[in-house]
Specification:
This protein is of the alpha+beta class. It contains 20 helices and ten strands. It has helices spanning about 5-20, 35-40, 45-55, 85, 105-120, 130-155, 180-195, 210-225, 230-235, 255-270, 285-300, 335, 350-355, 370-375, 385-390, 475-490, 495-505, 515-530, 535-545, 610-615; strands spanning about 75, 315-320, 350, 390, 415-420, 425-430, 450, 470-475, 555-565, 580-590. The strands form four sheets. It has a four-stranded mixed β-sheet with strand order 6-5-9-10, with no helix packed on it. A two-stranded antiparallel ribbon has the order 1-3. β5 and β6 (about 425-430) form a beta hairpin. α5 packs antiparallel against α6. It is globular and about 85 Å long. The two termini are about 45 Å apart. Residues about 1-25 have low confidence and may be disordered.
């Protein structure tokens, strides 16, 4: 974990010490400041400068508003946050909608400038510790690559700036081609790998394997449909008349060679970063084991909850870790996303489209057209569903710790149920609905809540107790998925199936024998459910050019009704009980909260008009001119 120091206090101590030792009181340095020259004379100060560059990572994906809510994973419950601007297709250069700070053009370039300053000055630093200089150089190369990759994922090719501008320079610069940006990021990753290989790094710092993982990801993107201009042009029309397609992808070249490069990079991660977590099974885990395996991965091994395996921490190659001493939003995921019946905010709630894509335990697809599955939709499903989603009737934490003795069964209540209260039959609104008697706001609109990334430890009361689970920027399984995808595209299906089945076995799912298009579709769905809420889906749906049928789909909610069986009734407090109730589950398409619309220009985000006005050499992305 990187413990960012209080720079003002730290610098004050140093300068006070300098003042106290000086006899020339007329030539003292300003108290509370360290000159830029002094930073590069001292290893500790140089380290502090590099530490601060990590702040550009923010909370990872653990912000109140998550990228999942720009996808068919989730919807943001609250209004007025500019998410609708994106999801309803009305974004423009003057109204770009919500952009997380970890993708913001201005924020990323601010961090890139800090990287440039560090690299230029570490090269001429006067402190005598070459191993430290090499390590810091490696970290900065990784961070510069990471911040550029964030920009490229949103905008395509961007201006490559590898020096710190001084005063009175010409700051205008044209966008580099997408290929040039990929090559730059790859070289940065290679430089970082060379400098960091073999070094023991503190948790949360860049490592050689983190650099390998970043290289594998950007090369996978480079090989994908969205960045192959002939493919992009054949499947969309928004490039018509656009004179700079090279900033969006490869206008020529051999795609097979790009897939081969992606495969090799992914395999390098797999060969150097251990063996992942429980990817050595030759038969499927049991359903209970599969749920615990997946829950352990989501917890980063860092929960005291029953069933969490601490060794799952090995899955994370590069993560953002949180500590109790700091007031960091990333430790509030339970508050941000938990049920309102526990006094939480229900911010990013899963939509039915995601829940429906979890397979049945036998590997067949779930279908609302199947009467048996419709009657009991949460029975006998992929164990990852139970570790990722809170649905009506799901067991959860003790409610009496925060909401009083209103639910001794400790189950999620997102439906409406028959109930006898004071001898009168009433239509009772569940405690986790938007008509809850606990809170009639902050409730899920979809009938679901996120469970993944919320610590299930019953001692953690989410609305007033922080959790300290890591955000996984890169985990071993992503590298395996990248390898599988490249193998599929190269026609190496047996190898792809072998590794895909390793992931499925860990989660308790059966092996697949699929080939061709069916194998590709299964792989994509497997990646979808395994990497849910990890900032993968938004980029995957775009790079596969499937956004109209995924990101652009109308939101689906679930309506749950519980009616007494003939001769049965329940008085007092409600609990989910199939022996007393007949439950009816009805998927509902909702267009009131968000009327999602996909417009093909949204494959690339618009560059903010302020940036265009500041730099007349910038070319806007197509569809936004």
């Amino acid at each position: 974990m990187i413990r960012r120091m209080n720079k003002i206090l730290f610098f004050s101590i140093i300068t006070l010490g300098l003042f106290a030792c000086s006899k020339d009181f007329l030539n003292t340095k300003p108290l509370g400041e360290v000159s830029s020259e002094d930073v590069w004379k001292d290893g500790a100060l140089t380290s502090a400068f590099v530490n601060e560059i990590y702040n550009g990572l923010g909370n990872g994906g653990f912000d109140e508003q998550m990228l999942a809510s720009l996808t068919d994973e989730a919807v943001f419950t609250h209004t007025g946050r500019s998410i609708n601007t994106v999801n309803e297709g009305s974004l423009s250069p003057s109204n770009t909608g919500w952009v997380s700070g970890t993708y913001s053009w201005a924020n990323m370039y601010s961090r890139i400038r800090a990287c440039n300053v560090a690299l230029e000055n570490i090269a001429k630093a006067t402190f005598d510790d070459q191993p430290l200089k090499d390590r810091l150089n490696g970290e900065v190369h990784f961070l510069r690559a990471y911040y550029y990759h964030q920009l490229v994922r949103y905008y395509g090719g961007v201006p490559l700036i590898d020096k710190a501008y001084g005063l009175n320079e010409d700051y205008t610069i044209a966008r580099n081609s997408f290929e040039e940006c990929v090559n730059f990021i790859v070289k940065e990753c290679d430089d970082a790998t060379g400098l960091l290989d073999g070094k023991s790094m503190a948790k949360g710092r860049a490592t050689a394997n983190a650099a390998r993982a970043l290289k594998a990801r950007i090369l996978l993107y480079a090989a994908s449909d969205m960045h192959d201009i002939p493919t992009l042009q054949s499947k969309t029309s928004f490039l018509s008349g656009y004179s700079n397609p090279e900033v969006l992808g490869y206008t020529s070249g051999d795609r097979n060679s790009r897939w081969q490069a992606a495969k090799n990079a992914a395999k390098s991660v797999m060969d150097n970063a251990g063996s992942g977590y429980k990817l050595d099974l030759t038969v499927p885990a049991t359903a209970a084991q599969g749920k615990n395996n997946y829950m352990s991965i989501a917890m980063g091994g860092g929960s005291a909850a029953p069933g969490v395996d601490a060794s799952a921490a090995s899955e994370i190659i590069f993560g953002r870790y949180f500590i109790a001493e700091k007031d960091e939003g990333g430790s509030n995921q339970g508050l941000y996303n938990g049920p309102n019946g526990y006094h939480n905010w229900a911010g990013n709630t899963p939509i039915g489209l995601l829940v429906d894509d979890y397979e049945m335990m036998d590997g067949t697809k779930f279908s609302w057209s199947n009467p048996a599955q419709k009657a009991d939709p949460y029975e006998n499903r992929d164990p990852r569903l139970y570790a990722s989603i809170l649905y009506d009737g799901a067991d959860w934490k003790p409610r009496d710790l925060i909401s009083g003795n209103v639910d001794p069964a400790n189950q999620i209540q997102t439906g409406q149920y028959d109930l006898k209260i004071g001898g009168t039959l009433v239509n009772f609104n569940g405690l986790d609905t938007r008509s809850s008697t606990i809170e009639d706001w902050n409730g899920s609109r979809t009938g679901y809540y996120v469970r993944k990334f919320i610590d299930p430890d019953p001692a953690i009361v989410d609305n007033n107790t922080r959790q300290y689970l890591p955000w996984p920027f890169f985990r071993y399984t992503e590298a395996v998925f990248n390898y599988i995808e490249a193998c599929i595209e190269l026609g190496e299906e047996p190898e792809a199936r072998d590794w895909l089945n390793k992931i499925r076995f860990r989660s308790g799912m059966p092996a697949t024998t699929a080939t061709g298009t069916a194998l590709r579709d299964l792989y994509r769905n497997e990646r979808r459910v395994e990497m849910a809420f990890e900032e993968q889906r938004y980029h995957d749906a775009r790079r596969w050019l499937i956004a109209p049928a995924t990101l652009g789909r109308k939101i689906t909610f679930i309506s749950v009704l519980g009616k007494f069986k003939p001769g049965k009734e329940l008085s007092g407090l409600y609990k989910h009980d199939k022996s007393i109730y007949d439950y009816t589950y009805t998927p509902i398409v909702d267009q009131n909260h968000e009327d999602r619309t996909w417009v093909d220009k949204m494959y690339f985000r618009p560059i903010n008009l302020d940036e265009i006005n500041k730099n007349d050499k910038l070319v806007q992305n197509p569809g936004y001119q």
